[in-house]
Amino acid sequence: MQAAHLVGGELSYRCLGGSNYELRLIIYRDCASNGAPFDDPAIITIYNGSNQVVQNLQVPLHQSSFLPINAPNNCTALPSFVCTQEGIYLDTVSLPAGGGPYTVSHQRCCRNNSIDNIPNPRLWGNTYTINIPATPACNSSPRFSAAPPVALCLNVPVNIDMGAIETDGDSLYYFLCSPLHGGGNQVNTTGPNSPRPDTATAPPYALVPFSNTYSTSYPIPSSPAFNIDPQTGMLSGKPNLVGQYVFAVCVQEWRNGVLLSTLRRDFQFNVTAACVRTTADFDKQDLDPFTLCSGRTIQFNEDCINTNSYFWDFGVALTNSDTSNLPNPVYTFPDTGVYQIMLIAEPGSSCADTIIREYKVFDGLNVGFDVGGQACFDRHSFNFTPTGNFGPDAQFSWNFGGSTTSGSNTSNLKNPSGIVYTQAGSYLVTLEIEDGDCKDNFSDSVHLYPRPILKHLLDANSGCVPYAVSFRDSSEYAGTAIHFWDFGDGYTSTQQNPVHLYENPGDYFVYHRLITTSACKDTLEERSTTAIRIHPTPFPGMIIIPEETTIFNPEFEISLTSENYSTSSLLFPDGRKVIDPGNNLVYTARDTGIQRFVHIVENEFGCSDTVQVETYVQQPFRLYIPNAFTPNDDGLNDRFSYSILGVHEFKIRILNRWGQLVFQTGDPSYFWNGRMNNSGDVLPGGVYTYVIEVIQKEDRTSVVKRGTVSLIR
């Protein structure tokens, strides 16, 4: 399987003591590639000084992660789609003493076919290799301290740290070198020409050639050209052509004039134009004459890229207060004129960018118009007067929104007058004013209304005293109006729909006045020729004697004293109704309590009235108690039977001569039968004491009666 996703790698080692070493292989791959994932395991082959295989290791993938998407400088942001993965392989080996120097290598094919600086890039593979010297013993190689960048930005200068860590204190020398070839594109094989050789080939290794104008010292199109500081490893340059470019950085490790190892980083730089750099920009002024002259207060909207801070200068001479740090400020200019507006993106930083644009400032025309004239269609004539901030050379364009008697619905006069429409209705009038670079318009409606018509309705025009009449205004008019009503009996109202109560019989003529205060203004009035007729009502009278009596004499004398009626009826407390009962009657109550009498009279106009009188029949308190009884079941005097009337509450208790309670009840119809509590033992003959407690029905006063009764056996 080809690994066209690979974008680079490096191989280093660390001495663990004696002949033991930790090998560290790093592979970089393109996240977006459809090639194979990281190998697991990766093959690492170790050769001795005679190019004999000492060990062929299958090294497991220790970890994988995504490289940080760091921009080349703080003025630029990389696009979100760039992505590079880093795979780290670690293994520990023990090498025979005296067998060195050793060459440690990993090979893998193939490179991305889209690489621009080598010929036929898909045919070239990768070799990552490093030497372990025979002496000095237990040496550790340099190791790059930082990961390479995932992408470079077109025309953005970069300074990339390619420095390495050297733990033994040896001297390091940095230079640009060539990538190394390894592996092949013969699939389904395991030899040296397979994409993933099962054993890396022995050194020396072929260099990957550069094409066209590219070389080891100029691997990327750039101006200035890429260069690496031999002492610090800082790689600098400015790429000037979008593409993918392979390069390599080598770090030589020297001690006492002897070269110990060479660390090589093989990597693919992606140069993209999709980076976002700090750019100052803001909206151009809209020169539409309708929006250009909107007044001295203007909203500015930034359109910067990769910007977090701003500085605006609005170009007002002789002042330092015409500035703002807001991204979208609103500024009110002191006068009209032409101003140079400056915006600095990221002010005070090395990323700062500046743009200056010209803005014209005009006062707003604020076009409007006033309308003079009557709004009643039958005698209207409109005069139009423009309003606003325009000069003497302004041009006017009127559209009256409908046909007029002049035959035209437009005018170019400043003050058109005597405008008469051919029909009533509403018309949208538009005025457009052009004054130099500025235009503005205004529209408003004028309305032509028919003459108001005064009308009203009554819910009825006659009734019996007292009678409430509802007056409903049904006048035809537009806008607002004032109403005045005179009801003919000395009372008035300003409500639109009043309700008036007539309290005296008679004929009344109503006056209604309507004053329209808007639209078609007019005053209309009318006095009705038909009277509202209010009829008298009969007078019901009834005298009942007495007002209060007892159930022992429950008769009432009734005298009817009604006047001005033609028919009458009397409703008695027992529900009986008598038509035309005469004047003197007697009624005998059948029960105690309130007695309600109702007398209804009606006259010839159908007007009626009612009188109601209430009397009262008392139930006096009465108590009869026998002094003896004979409970021998002969049906005669078998119970202690007492009689009680006119009570609200009742309670009786009976005690024997020792004070023992033998009977009690709160029911006046429940009597003692001579047994203990009426259901127990038969009690002996003798004298028993009773205590009766009552609350009288009429006045709710309490009464207590004590006495004795003889039980005879």
Give start-end ranges of low-pLDDT stretches.
Answer: none
**Largest β-sheet summary:** 8 strands, mixed
Helix content: under 10%
- How would you sum up the global shape? elongated
From the helix content, strand content and strand pairing, which structural class follows? mainly beta
Please count the helical segments: 1
Q: Please give the number of β-strands.
A: 56
Average pLDDT works out at 91
Which band does the percent of strand residues land in?
Answer: over 45%
How far apart are the first and last residues' alpha carbons, in Å? 132 Å
CA gyration radius, whole angstroms = 60 Å
How is this structure best summarized?
The chain is an all-beta fold. The chain has 1 helix and 56 strands. Helices cover 1% and strands 46% of the residues.
